[in-house]
Amino acid sequence: MCGIVGVLGKHEVSPLLVEALKRLEYRGYDSAGIATVDDGHLDRRRAVGKLINLSDTLVRDPLPGKSGIGHTRWATHGAPTEVNAHPHRAGPVAVVHNGIIENFETLRAELKAQNFGAETDTDTETIALLAQSYLEDGATPDEAVAQTLQRLEGAFALAFLFDGYDDLMIAARRGSPLAISLDDGEAYVGSDAIALAPMTDHLTYLEEGDWAVLTRNSVQIYDAHNQPVERPSEPITPEAGRVEKGGHRHWMAKEIAEQPAVLDQALQHYIRDADLVMPNDAVDFAKVNRVVMVACGTAYYACHVAKYWIERLANLPVEVDVASEFRYREPPIPEGTLAVFVSQSGETADTLAALNYCKGKCPIVAVVNVEGSSIARAADVVLPILAGREIGVASTKAFTCQLAVLAVLALKAARDRGTLTGEQMDAHLDTLTRIPALIAQALNIEDELRDIARDLSEARDILFLGRGAMYPLALEGALKLKEISYIHAEGYASGELKHGPIALVDDSVPVIVFAPTDPLFGKTVSNMQEVMARGGKVVLVSDTQGLSSQRATWHTAQMPDVAELWAPILYAVPAQLLAYHTAIAKGTDVDQPRNLAKSVTVE
Ligand code: F6R
């Protein structure tokens, strides 16, 4: 959350900063701002709301300078106002920050007593004030930053500029990711490769506790103990530079449509010549007696689906937890545990902290989309989901690719543990490789789903139901709908409805049921009848056989037939399209829904 960028350039830097912030806007869009040093003079411009407002401000009131830092904000401390927008300035110091300073109240009180009063509600301003106080005590900028960092508790990626210094930028990271680069007489700092890809072709990722002093021609990195260190430089993948909607109205639409191709790519990476292919050092499930899966949001629901698969195929107990609970619960990690962390961004703060809790206690597998991410780098085994860059805030193709990779992992567990016959394994591999084509077919019912969504957009509350591995999909359907359409939605296990939630049902509440024909179909139908008996308006999403047996539903959506075990991958598509078209019908901002950000790097 929050994106930061910094450039010591050869030319005017404002346009470069704004362009980089555009690429970082997925991290937050509550406000944006830049600061520059021009002939030794530090100044800044800030604007509330999306980046376009900052661009407008800069047209009216340009900001000259070849050295600059920029920020796009997802508000944590203090409302999204101009005063709370970054860069924050205290005297000769300007700073941009991604993260949370947990001891800022204490520091602020201490600084106030020394006459360094705060003007904003933010935690970040404390950082600038601290640095200012050390500079006024006679410290150089490097010394002031080193002393400031020692006082901070919490998570941060920072970039500093100083009045009077045209050729100096200082960067620091603890908890939040940050990369730097020196390229042909220019220096760069950025939250990720995406921000910097158009400017440089290589990056150095700062490690935990590192800070770096950059000029146009030099960089010195220090570790958490202020010792000079070297960190490797890595090439930026061409993928990081590609950011195009390809004719689609929204990133979300593009990413939904891409699913047959990216899923095929992911599956081909792990299934070759009708056999499973895993990294050489991938874990041996024969030595595992328990799997713990940890993630947040949509990635958590992917884990929840995988629990059904791993338990059923490999007869291996799986515990699934949300990272924000797991990290503080201090759960026992007995011998024989394997921990699996799933994250699209690979930067989610809670998931990373949960991983760090498991570090040294058990083998760690990371299922990630961004391969150079913090979670990928901290894991023992990385299984990339190969979804390509996901920009829409609502996760779509990453979810189905996570499911595909977790399906492969479940089959690997079954193979290692000898719980499937050769024929069963072949049949599963064959079915899985056919899923991308089925997804392409499922995308063909978009028109029907658009019509249903028009009716859904009138509702105030919507319920989603599913049984077995379709239950997490009901949760995912509800999450997708509420995050982009702002309609209140809840997902329930079909059988759980009568234990309370059915009290919500009346003729104003649509109930969306994901029910492919499977051994539990009859039971789900009974739950549906209970809803209809109370006036509930049922939308049944099922296959030909499932729909033929049902009458009196409000709407139906006909899906292709699919092997019941892998149905959640396919049924993700109607869940996504219903949410997308409901949001369109409501006129909400599909790609940048309110209050959300793509990469959740704070707790
Ligand atoms: C919902 C969504 C979020 C993320 C969650 C975890 O559409 O995108 O719920 O799934 O914030 O993010 P990652 O996967 O990056 O760890």
From TrEMBL:
Entry keyword Repeat: yes
Coiled-coil portions: none
Source species of the chain: Palleronia pelagia
Swiss-Prot/TrEMBL GO biological process terms: amino sugar biosynthetic process; carbohydrate metabolic process; fructose 6-phosphate metabolic process; protein N-linked glycosylation; UDP-N-acetylglucosamine metabolic process
PANTHER family: GLUCOSAMINE--FRUCTOSE-6-PHOSPHATE AMINOTRANSFERASE, ISOMERIZING (PTHR10937), GLUTAMINE--FRUCTOSE-6-PHOSPHATE TRANSAMINASE (ISOMERIZING) (PTHR10937:SF0)
Quaternary data: Homodimer.
Positions of the Glutamine amidotransferase type-2 domain: 2-217
GO molecular function: carbohydrate derivative binding; glutamine-fructose-6-phosphate transaminase (isomerizing) activity
Protein's name in the database: Glutamine--fructose-6-phosphate aminotransferase [isomerizing]
SIS domain span: 281-419, 452-593
EC numbers for this chain: 2.6.1.16
Broad class of where this protein is predominantly found: cytoplasm
